[in-house]
Amino acid sequence: LYLSFSLFTTSVVVRAELFFFFFKQKTAYEMLRSLVGSEMCIRDSQHSIPFTTGFPFGHGLSYTDFQYTEFNFDSSSMVVRFIVTNTGRVAGSEVAQLYLGFPKTAGEPPKQLKGFTKTALLAVGESAEVRMQLRSRDLSVWDPDSHRWTRVSGDFMFYVGASSLDIRISKIVPLE
Q1: Three-state SS for 138?
Q2: pTM score > 0.90 for this model?
């Protein structure tokens, strides 16, 4: 792995080349592990590394609390529906997120963000119905042999929550 960057100032161009200077004798795998933060996972045939530094997508966007209820997925219209209720002490908005877990046979990451929606400002005790439209491609994986997206069938795990680590509803939905 070769890393190079340039820093431009008024009259000087500073070029720094990092090869064995900072990462002395480290493999590409070890360099990625030290460079990549946040909530992600590097996977290959030999390693699976969960990263938990930083904050998940959506963290800390509200000053109040919300409850998620009444999850429903209509497979004919591909619409996910659920209710978000402000259970906190002040009015606020919530950015609800939808993640999808593919069947294990698909070989996909455990959670994929498929949609997010911000509610209107909800007063204390007020509820809002959230709807998210999925596309057929959201339930598909890339097939390198046929060079096209292929729909996956099996048991999908639907996750709804305030962030990827703050899941409020999870439900298995069998899809053909």
Answers
A1: helix
A2: no
